[in-house]
Amino acid sequence: MLKKNFILIQKEFKKITEIDLDQRQTNFLIDKIERRDNLFEDLSRLYFDDQSKVKKLKRCLKKWLKLAEEETIFSLAGYIFYLEEDFEKAKYYFLKAISLNSDNYDNWRDLAFTLRHSKEDNVAYGIFFNFDYIIHYFKQLGLAKLGYKELEELVLEIDKKANIKNKHEKN
To answer: Can you tell me the distance from the alpha carbon of 114 to that of 120, in angstroms, rounded to the nearest whole number?
Structure first.
């Protein structure tokens, strides 16, 4: 049923935007690719070219989120709220995408940029520069089931330890 629902969402998305909505692909850190898909770039251009289409997408989001709780739709929601500078909602949806696929560097990167705009620089920095540790402990500690506060504590603790290690290496 979810596959059918996603196909329906893809068709509606294409009708509104004239852009294909592909299934989100995992961007593993080891692949050394800056971004695996172009959804954010496509939506950014659309936002500047024709905001009315982005508003139509936003109106469809509630229905789409009920039809398919999946990484692509959560990322799409995060991007739309990010573009509208509603960083709390963007953070919420990027965290939902991470909870479904914590291996995807794109999800973490999207969250980090959102946090940076929310003035949560320390957490954003920690995610960017200690991603390999963050993902390891995120999985090991089962944080996908917990909230942002636990993730924030983990990121800040890892960043603190990484900074201590770096200071010792310099001396």
So the answer is: 9
d(CA 171, CA 165): 10
Q: Which two tokens stand for residue 118?
A: 């929310």
**b/e sequence 91-100, b meaning 16+ C-beta within 10 Å:** bbbbbbbbbb
Segments in the chain below pLDDT 70? 1-2, 146, 164-171
SS3 18: coil
Q: Residue 54: give the domain boundaries.
A: 38-170
pTM of the model: 0.87
**CATH code for the domain of 78:** 1.25.40
- Whether 78 contacts 72, CB under 8 Å: no
Quick one: tokens of 149?
A: 């506060």
pLDDT tens column, 47-89? 999 999 999 999 999 999 999 989 999 999 999 999 999 999 9
> How far out from the chain centre does Cα 49 lie?
23
User: Long-range contacts for 142-149 (Cβ within 8 Å, ≥24 apart)?
Assistant: 144/98, 144/99, 144/100, 144/102, 145/99, 148/91, 148/95
Residue at 15 is within a domain: no
| CA neighbor of 9 nearest in space, from 51, 70, 53 | 70
